[in-house]
Design brief:
Alpha-Beta Plaits, two-stranded antiparallel ribbon, about 20% helix, elongated
Length: about 100
């Protein structure tokens, strides 16, 4: 999934990581050692989460030594609706793929 520009499209989650800049000590553990999708990037000694790449797995949050990272719900507009049953889901998925 890392080879694609938007891993979130392949691994859907209703959550995304968020970094509290006041609590973050910029140790880099989340970015360099933990995030499997390279979703945490450094900009001028400040770490931020790329929502486009974050799959909401929480690996960064549970390993942050200062508890500066938490999972928060994605905006409602970014969430897919839940289908009523498997057949309906399959039809919606096929239609979205142009099949």
């Amino acid at each position: 999934m890392k080879e694609h520009d938007a891993p979130y499209l392949l691994a859907k989650s209703r959550f995304v990581a968020e970094i509290d800049e006041d609590s973050c000590v910029a140790c880099g553990i989340c970015s360099e050692e933990r995030c499997p999708m390279d979703a945490i990037v450094e900009d001028d000694d400040v770490y931020r989460v790329s929502e486009k790449r974050c799959i909401g797995c929480g690996v960064c949050a549970i390993t942050c030594p200062t508890d500066a990272i938490m999972l928060v719900p994605r905006p409602e507009s970014a969430m897919d609706g839940i289908s009523g049953d498997m057949a309906q889901w399959e039809q919606e998925r096929s239609a979205a793929r142009g099949l």
